[in-house]
C-alpha cells in the first residue's frame, strides 16, 4: 500500500487542492468545505484484482488500496468490517419481498458501523502524529473513536448532547475517554461548537463522523458497499436503505459503488434511499425540495426523536449525499418514532437482529417505501442495520413493554401467559 493511490484532496467548497503529504484535515480557508479524497484508479486496478481480493481475510482492510492510509504500519484495527449480509426470509415474507437482505453492522467491535470510520480516522491520526483527538457525537461515533484511540494510545475528548443515553456514555468511560455532556439550548449543535474550540484553538485532531471536519473517516463506510457486492456474488442490489443523519454514511456508501465503477469491477448503481426521523429530517426535506446541494437548510429546532444517532440538525455531508441520491435516482423517506420501534421489534422477533432505534430506521423506511409503492417485490433490497440495541438501553426499556411477575405456581404461569402473550395451551 502506498501514498501513490491518493492523488490529492480537494475542498468541496473553494476547490483548494492538497497533497496527502501535507497532512491536511480541514480546509485552511475555514469555509466548511470537505476535503474530498481522490484516487489513482488506474494504479489501483493495476495493483489488485477481484481474484487477489478473494484471497484476503474478509474484513475492512482487505480493501486497503481504496483507503487513504499510506502504509500498513499506521493501520489501527480491531477487526472491523466483514459483517454478515443476512437473507431475511421471515421478514421478507412478512413484507412481501423475495430478496430482502440485512447488512448487520451491529457485529462490529463496538457495536456500530462507526468502527469502519474510526479505524480509518485514527489510522490517519497516527500517521499525522496526533496525541489528542476530539469528537462531537450522540454516542456511537464517540464510543468508536474512544476504542480506537485506546488501541492507538491517543487521548480522546468527547462532547455528547445532554440527552445522550448512558449506555453509550458508559462505553466511552470504560474506553478511557474524557466525556462532557453539553446542554442543548438552541438549534445549532453545541457539541460541534465545543469540538471546534479544541480543534481550532488548541490543535486537537477533530474526528467526528462527518466529513467537513475529518475527510478520512468518511472513507471507511464505503467498504460496506464493497462487501455487499462481494456477498451478492458481484451483483448489484436494486435498492439500499440507509439511516441518515449528517449524510456521511450515505456519502460513504455511494463512494464505495463509485470506486468499483471507476476500476471497472461493477457497472451502475443501486438506488440509494435516505431515511430520517419525523422529528429531524433536514436532509430528506432538501431532497423533497430538489434543493441545490450547496444550499441545504438546517433543521430549525432541537431534534425530537428516539433515533438519537440521527439527530444532526444540519447534514454536514448533505451536499455529497444529495448528489448521491440524484445520481442513483434515489429518494428520501421520513418515518415516525413508533414506526422505528415497530421496525426494532420486527428485526428482533423475525430475524434475531437486535438494533437500536437509529439502527432500525432503515427498515422503518423500507416498510414506508413499500406502502408508497416505491419497491417491487422481485427487487433485491438491502437494509443497513447500523447499531446494536444494547447501545440505547434506556429507550429499549421504555419501548420493550413490561413482563409479568408470578409466584412459582403452574396456574399463575398459564394465566400470565394468556394475559401477556396470548399463549394458548
From TrEMBL:
The modification N6-(pyridoxal phosphate)lysine is found at residue 114. Its EC number is 4.2.3.1. One of its GO terms (molecular function) is threonine synthase activity. It is an enzyme of class 4 (lyase). It catalyses: O-phospho-L-homoserine + H2O = L-threonine + phosphate. Pyridoxal 5'-phosphate binds at residues 140, 386. Residues 76-387 form the Tryptophan synthase beta chain-like PALP domain. Signal peptide: none annotated. It holds the Pfam family PALP. Pathway: Amino-acid biosynthesis; L-threonine biosynthesis; L-threonine from L-aspartate: step 5/5. Belongs to the threonine synthase family. Catalyzes the gamma-elimination of phosphate from L-phosphohomoserine and the beta-addition of water to produce L-threonine. PANTHER family: L-THREONINE DEHYDRATASE CATABOLIC TDCB, THREONINE DEHYDRATASE, MITOCHONDRIAL-RELATED. This is Threonine synthase.
Amino acid at each position: 500500500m502506498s501514498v501513490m493511490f491518493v492523488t490529492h484532496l480537494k475542498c468541496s467548497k473553494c476547490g483548494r487542492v492538497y497533497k496527502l503529504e501535507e497532512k491536511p484535515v480541514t480546509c485552511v480557508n475555514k469555509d466548511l468545505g470537505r476535503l474530498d479524497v481522490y484516487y489513482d484508479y488506474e494504479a489501483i486496478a493495476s495493483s489488485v484484482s477481484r481474484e487477489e481480493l478473494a484471497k484476503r481475510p474478509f474484513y475492512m482492510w482487505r480493501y486497503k488500496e481504496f483507503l487513504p492510509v499510506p502504509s500498513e504500519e499506521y493501520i489501527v484495527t480491531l477487526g472491523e468490517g466483514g459483517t454478515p449480509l443476512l437473507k431475511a426470509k421471515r421478514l421478507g415474507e412478512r413484507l412481501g419481498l423475495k430478496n430482502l437482505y440485512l447488512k448487520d453492522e451491529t457485529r462490529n467491535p463496538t457495536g456500530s458501523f462507526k468502527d469502519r470510520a474510526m479505524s480509518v480516522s485514527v489510522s490517519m491520526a497516527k500517521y499525522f502524529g496526533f496525541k489528542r483527538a476530539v469528537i462531537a457525537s450522540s454516542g456511537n461515533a464517540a464510543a468508536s473513536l474512544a476504542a480506537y484511540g485506546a488501541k492507538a494510545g491517543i487521548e480522546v475528548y468527547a462532547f455528547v448532547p445532554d440527552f445522550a443515553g448512558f449506555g453509550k456514555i458508559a462505553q466511552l468511560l470504560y474506553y478511557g475517554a474524557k466525556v462532557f455532556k453539553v446542554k442543548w439550548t438552541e438549534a445549532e449543535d453545541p457539541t460541534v461548537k465545543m469540538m471546534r474550540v479544541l480543534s481550532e484553538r488548541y490543535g486537537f485532531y477533530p474526528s467526528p463522523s462527518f466529513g467537513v471536519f475529518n475527510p478520512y473517516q468518511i472513507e471507511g463506510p464505503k467498504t460496506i458497499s464493497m462487501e455487499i457486492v462481494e456477498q451478492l456474488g458481484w451483483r448489484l442490489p436494486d435498492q439500499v436503505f440507509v439511516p441518515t443523519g449528517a449524510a456521511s454514511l450515505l456519502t460513504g456508501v455511494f463512494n464505495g459503488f463509485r470506486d468499483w465503477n471507476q476500476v471497472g469491477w461493477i457497472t451502475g448503481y443501486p438506488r440509494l434511499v435516505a431515511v430520517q426521523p419525523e422529528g429531524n429530517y433536514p436532509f430528506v426535506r432538501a431532497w423533497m425540495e430538489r434543493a441545490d446541494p450547496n444550499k441545504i437548510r438546517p433543521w430549525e429546532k432541537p431534534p425530537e426523536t428516539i433515533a438519537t444517532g440521527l439527530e444532526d440538525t444540519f447534514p454536514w455531508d448533505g451536499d455529497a449525499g444529495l448528489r448521491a441520491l440524484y445520481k442513483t435516482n434515489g429518494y428520501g423517506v421520513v418515518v415516525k418514532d413508533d414506526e422505528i420501534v415497530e421496525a426494532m421489534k420486527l428485526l428482533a422477533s423475525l430475524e434475531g437482529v437486535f438494533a437500536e432505534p437509529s439502527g432500525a430506521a432503515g427498515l422503518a423506511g423500507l416498510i414506508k417505501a413499500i406502502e408508497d409503492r416505491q419497491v417491487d417485490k422481485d427487487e433485491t433490497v438491502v437494509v443497513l442495520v447500523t447499531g446494536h440495541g444494547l447501545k440505547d438501553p434506556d429507550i429499549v426499556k421504555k419501548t420493550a413493554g413490561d413482563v409479568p411477575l408470578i409466584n412459582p405456581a403452574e396456574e399463575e404461569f398459564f394465566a400470565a401467559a394468556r394475559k401477556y402473550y396470548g399463549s394458548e395451551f
